[in-house]
Amino acid sequence: MKSAFRNGYFFTLSRSLNPNPNPNLPSTLFSLHLIPPHSSPSISPPPFRSVSPIARISGLSFTSMAGGEPHALPLLEKQFDDFRSQLEESGTLRDRIRAVVAEIESTSRFIHSSLLLVHQSRSTPEVLEKPKAQIVVLKELYNRLAEIVRESPGGYYRYHGDWKSETQTVVSLLAFMHWLETGTLLLHTEAEEKLGLSGSEFGLDVEDYLVGICFMSNELPRYVVNQVTAGDYDCPRKVMKFLTDLHAAFRLLNLRNDFLRKKFDGMKYDLRRVEEVYYDVKIRGLAANVDSVEKAAA
Amino acid sequence: MLQRYALLQRISVMALKPHRLHNLADTTSLGVAKRPRTMATESSSSSMKDAFSQYADYLNNQNDKRERIVKASRDITMNSKKVIFQVHRMSKHNREEVLQKAEKDLAAVTDQFVARLVKELQGTDFWKLRRAYSPGIQEYVEAATFCKFCRTGTLLNLDEMNATLLPLSDPSLEPLQINVLDYLLGLADLTGELMRLAIGRISDGEVEFAENICKFVREIYRELTLVVPFMDDSNDMKTKMDTMLQSVMKIENACFSVHVRGSEYMPLLGSEDPTSFLLAVPSVDI
User: Which family does it belong to (chain A) (predicted)?
Assistant: First the structure.
């Protein structure tokens, strides 16, 4: 039932300054009545197959149309005035969205810069401390964003472009942190949970999530290189296993020829780079001790 | 089999809430939690597979839907164009007949093709797939407003248009309504057709009709200049505004030539206007 409200109905609903407090209210009817009565023949027969009152006043032929004009033009003007106020309203909504998104962007930039320390052979828990504290901030920001978008029922995808790329970055950072901590992939639901979006009308778009995961994979080759330099010779094996699984999982998707497809195509280069590092480490016998442990386990 | 059914159900749930996977995800996260922690790597790679097969279902479903909507939109475009051509066949002698046919065709477009689009879009996010159906809707707006203008000389309002779409959709679901942006983009195209019509009418001698078109198009252009800056993706609209200005000027120039050289044109046009000062001249002489 709720889903029925996600639609392109914004222009009529937006005029209600009072955000619909009861989501179960049949907003269709509600909004239709908001239209000024003289411009909406709501239930009457299809208007362009019938003769409108204006046509009757002005007569059917064009020779007498000059007489009808004073009636026609104010109506025309009225409609455009309405459009303008509707569009202005959605413009202010968009500005508010952008303000929040700018904050999300700066928070994620901060997280990113803190995470960069991972390449400087600091211990992982120590590195994660600061960015993890920022997740709460992100959560709060997404909460605010969701609240703003809620004012425009069904408007999620109308404004989606405004937070799309920032959200992809956020997902990639969250996924990277999650991987550093657990060695597993952050799933879509887990990402939504972290951002406090579970169960709310405002969700995390699956494609945004997938793009974010691709971004995370771009980070891994550099991580592996620096870990090996710092003396962690087991790292390439772990990362390679993870990336191979991830790559295999991505191949389950039938992608269109779009951005996600491009990002996924890039993932194989990350995998190749990690494999190269693994090869370098292994051929020099640096990972030997780990291998024997593996064999013992098998 | 049961599993398949469950999957189908999940897909249909997703169709309703396109950007979310909560319903199925709840079950997966539970499944993950139940697995013993010690098998971390193994369970993670299989839960990854599970999750991705859900994403795959979601994407497949959505791509199929988009494909169908694009097709429906193309059909609307094609048939709306036919309506517009029909209106252009109008001359002062067959006006009623031509318009009646055009209106009939337009009603057929609504009942057949727009209805199909409405069915496809039902229960999904209209804004998400807007790019897939927007061209068809714009053309449809163009055809409907064109018919209406030729009939009454007035602009068909968005609310009026949307009212005709209501009966097409399932009353229990949110109906597809044309959004302001598509309507305005359609209107911008309308002026191009009106320009063609005006030129045709002038050469057919219906100068007054052309002048009415001119007034109307000017009015629309003027109103749109105030609205365009607020439109979401105004670049598309801005180029349309430029072409619109061209159209307005073409009509104005045509009206101007007739006005200036009107006395020269009139006899050639074979005006049947009884007030014509050339009425005395028998038409056989021309």
Answer: Belongs to the translin family.
Q: How far is CA A72 from CA A57, A58, A76, in A?
A: 10, 9, 6
- The answer on A208 and A106 residing in a single domain is yes
Q: What is the pLDDT of residue A71?
A: 52
| The domain boundary residue, chosen from A178, A212, A246 | A212
**Cα distance between residue B145 and residue B53, in whole Å:** 46
The CATH number linked to A230 is 1.20.58.200
For residue B96, CA distances in Å to A54, A79, A147, B201 come to: 18, 28, 53, 15
Question: CB under 8 Å, gap of 24 or more: what pairs does B272-281 form?
Answer: none
- Alpha-carbon distance A287 to nearest alpha carbon in chain B (angstroms): 20
User: In this predicted model, what pLDDT tens digit does every residue of B178-207 receive, in sequence order?
Assistant: 999 999 999 999 999 999 999 998 888 888
Looking at the predicted structure, is the pLDDT value of residue B208 above 50? yes
B52, A41: Cβ pair inside 8 Å?
no
Chain A partners of B29 at a C-beta cutoff of 8 Å? 187, 189-190
Computed from CA positions of residues B105, B106, B111, B113, in that sequence, does the dihedral angle turn out positive or negative?
positive
What domains are there in chain B, each with its CATH number? 60-178 (1.20.58.190), 180-262+269-277 (1.20.58.200)
Is residue A36 included in any domain, yes or no?
no
Confidence of residue B124 (pLDDT cuts 50, 70, 90): confident
Residue A129: inside a domain, yes or no? yes
Q: What is residue A17's three-state secondary structure?
A: coil
Q: Is the ipTM here above 0.85?
A: no
Do A290 and A243 share a domain, yes or no? Answer: yes
Is A205 domain-assigned?
A: yes
- Look at residue A288 in the predicted model and tell me its pLDDT: 57
Nearest CA in chain A to B20: A203
Tokens of A216: 């995370």
For residue A165, the distance in angstroms to the closest alpha carbon of chain B comes to: 16
Please state the rounded mean pLDDT for residues B165-188. 86
Q: Which residue has the higher pLDDT, B169 or B283?
A: B169
pLDDT for A67 beyond 90:
no
CATH number at residue A181: 1.20.58.190
pLDDT of residue B263: 58
Q: pLDDT tens digit string along B237-246? A: 889 999 999 9
Residue A53 within a domain: no
Chain B: give the shortest CA distance to residue A235, in Å.
Answer: 14
Span B100-114, average pLDDT:
94
A·B CB contacts under 8 A: 233
Same domain for A117 and A235: no
Please give the tally of structural domains in chain A: 2
Query: Are residues A199 and A256 part of one domain?
Result: no
Domain around A260:
218-298
Distance CA B111, CA B114 (A): 6
CB B93 within 8 A of CB B270: no
Q: Give the confidence band of B266 by pLDDT, cuts at 50, 70, 90.
A: low
Alpha-carbon span B17 to A200, nearest angstrom: 11
What is the reported pLDDT for A66? 40
Residue at a domain's end among A189, A212, A235: A212
